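Hi, here's the filled form for the chain we discussed.

Project: internal
Contact: R.S.
Residues: 198
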Amino acid sequence: MKERITDYILITMSGMLMACAVNFFFAEHTLAPGGITGMSIIVNALTKIPMSYVSLGISVPLLVMGIVFLGKSFGIKTLYITFTTPLFLKIIPVTHVTDNLFIAAIVGGLLVGAGIGIALTRDCATGGTDLMALLIRKIIKFLKLPAILFILDGTVVILSGIISRDYKVAIFSLFSLLIIIQTINIITSKFGAVRRPA
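And the returned structure, exactly as it came back:
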């Protein structure tokens, strides 16, 4: 029971960290360093559909596949964070913090990387490209999770550059993605590698 409570406290923190990254650093500068957050920012910029709705719309189908292929325990915790993150995106106001793209890319990247890393060490995913990566790794076992994440998220970054036609933003998004991947590596290495769900 204590372990389960710890899981949900940390998973809640994970969702909050990612929402802070988006609403404090990424959204204002249209930084899209991959993931469902990056996809949500891109779709929001094109359609003005709220990021919370876009995030949920992409995450739910992935979640269903996660439950089917990665296990019930994994699915329940991932379901929790899938709904928690959009909730935090709604609750936490989009706030101007810095005009500096470099700072936004670094701090936002650290927050998202920490959020994903924490989730992975608690046997769940954030419902984004980390879940996609875990599903892909079930099929292509020789690929490492960070490599799959970089490919998936790198694609989002390239699309963000094409759509926005702002290659400066795309470069900073890629920089932020590298920080995210490195932060995930550090957290999962220090606090436990991704454990195979039961």
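Let me know if anything looks off before we file it.
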